[in-house]
Design brief:
With 140 residues, this protein is an all-beta fold. The chain contains no helices and four strands.
Length: 140
């Protein structure tokens, strides 16, 4: 005889997996534009109107007056000499100044959307129970 004769008879088990769909959401970013920002140097020409002053000493010798000497040279009556005392000259210069401040920012607009998604799931359904006789007690 075999060793199985005295062992309890165990009915075979069957495992059924019930599954369902789980929602996963993937977001993809669609890039519509890209911006490259830089400062570029531009040049313009301006014409400036200036009044430059030259101051001159004018010496005129008159007849009958004492003699006048300029730089060791005697002036004859009615003769005029000019000596430049000062003369203004334009010296263009440039100063860099802030003319405008520009603020660059990005702005995000968050929109909450509700999208219905149908998810399927499995249930165990017993359609028909067959009984073999009245002796079987299947209620537990």
């Amino acid at each position: 005889m075999s060793d199985d004769a005295g062992a309890e008879h165990t009915p075979p088990r069957q495992i059924i997996e019930l599954r369902e769909e789980r929602l996963t959401v993937e977001k993809r970013r669609a890039v519509y534009a890209q911006a490259t920002v830089s400062r570029e140097r531009r040049v313009r020409e301006e014409t400036v109107r200036l009044e430059l002053v030259t101051e001159v000493l004018v010496i005129t010798a008159h007849a009958g007056a004492p003699g006048v000497q300029v730089d060791g040279v005697a002036l004859a009556p009615g003769e005029t000499r000019e000596i430049v005392l000062y003369q203004e000259r334009a010296l263009p210069g440039k100063d860099v100044v802030v003319t405008q401040e520009v603020t660059l920012t990005t702005q995000r607009d968050i929109q909450v959307t509700m999208t219905p998604v149908e998810l399927a799931y499995e249930e165990l359904v017993v359609n028909h129970i067959e009984t073999k006789g009245e002796d079987d007690d299947r209620t537990e």
